[in-house]
Amino acid sequence: MTDSTIAHPATTFPTGLGAIADGLELVVMDLWGCMHDGVRVYPAALDALRRLKERGIAVALVSNAPRRIARVVPRLEEMGIGADLYAGIYTSGEMIWRHLAIRAEAAYRALGRRALAIGAVEDRGYFGGTDCAFTDDIEMADFTIVFGVADESVRVADFDSLLARALARGLPMICANPDLIVHRGGIEEICAGAIAEEYRRRGGTILIEGKPYPGIYRRVMADLGISDPACVLGIGDALRTDVAGAAGIGARSLLIAGGIHHGELLRDGAIDRAALARITAGAPSPTHALPYLVW
Fold first, then answer.
1. CB of 256 within 8 A of CB of 236?
2. Residue 214 to residue 210: CA distance in whole angstroms
3. pLDDT tens-digit readout, 267-286
4. At 9, is the pLDDT very low, low, confident or very high (cuts 50, 70, 90)?
5. What whole-number distance in Å separates Cα of residue 59 and Cα of residue 49?
6. Do domains 3-64+211-290 and 110-208 have the same CATH topology?
């Protein structure tokens, strides 16, 4: 019995992205933990992006960033990820904004207009182009919205009282980032998803967009004219979002083990295959896995 069979029979461990690129029409590429660490771009990942372009494979940058696209693009350009390297960029924050601006879905039409932000608000102009506005008074709020937290010192428990008050009023919560945690320059901090999941656990109603939910994948594929998910590869560092999201639409996935799961999966720069099998038990497993994104 081979090592890979012992570890996880469904997952292969290629030498790089180039080894599995044949037949691809679209790559759904994660950003944080895959292309950069929140501070610096990974040079090998940037090279892989350029190689995909050379092969004529469309790349959609798909992030659970709780921001409008217009606020993400300049930071990517600063890192060297230019618009010429991808076919489109999509964020969970943009998806939420569109729902609030258009209100095509019943759940969003039912929301009121006044939002109480739980946690940090990076962009006070986020609601521009919608009929929503921020309020600092929970008694005046029609719903709550969570984007993230101020820094790594903040914990979900810090919001206990506020969540209890929102729950008592029956306020729905919008979550602009489904991620639970992120590593910013190697330092772990909670994300909006951790607060939203606690609210849901207490019985609250949440509205949430981004990976792993299918809406963002459907939009990417429709925009780029891709109909067959067998020609799509989702690349990212999170089992819960990137791998599960790709599996949910019938696409292949490539897990970057050196990202959010590095403490569980990497041993001396190599993937611990037994550990991968262990943490994916009962959940979608990645089609492929690499320590870091390389061509």
1. yes
2. 8
3. 999 999 999 999 999 899 99
4. low
5. 8
6. yes
* Main-chain phi, psi angles of 46, to 5 degrees: -65, -40
| Cα separation, 60 vs 249, whole angstroms | 15
Domain ranges in the chain?
3-64+211-290, 110-208
Q: Which CATH superfamily is domain 3-64+211-290 in?
A: HAD superfamily/HAD-like (3.40.50.1000)
Contact 293, 52 (CB under 8 A): no
d(CA 56, CA 130): 37
DSSP, collapsed to helix, strand or coil, labels residue 165 as helix
How many other β-carbons are positioned within 10 Å of the β-carbon of residue 34? Answer: 26
pLDDT per position as a tens digit, 124-158: 999 999 999 999 999 999 999 999 999 889 999 99
Q: Taking a C-beta distance cutoff of 8 angstroms, is the pair 83, 77 a contact?
A: yes
pLDDT confidence bin for 46, thresholds 50/70/90: very high
Residue 150, number of CB atoms within 10 A of its CB:
11
Side-chain half-sphere exposure of 90, counting CA atoms within 13 A: 26
Give the count of alpha carbons within 13 A of 65, CB side only: 24
What does the pLDDT read at residue 80? Answer: 95
Residue with tokens 């040079």: 43
Whether 224 has a pLDDT exceeding 60, the answer reads yes
Q: Are strands 58-63 and 88-91 parallel, antiparallel or unpaired?
A: parallel
pLDDT confidence band for 7 (50 / 70 / 90): very low
Read off the tokens for 62: 């798909």
Two tokens, residue 167: 């729950």
- Identify whether the C-beta of residue 91 lies closer than 8 Å to the C-beta of residue 72: yes
* pLDDT at 215 exceeding the cut of 80: yes
SS3 252: strand
In this structure, whether the domain defined by 110-208 belongs to CATH 3.40.50.1000 is answered with yes
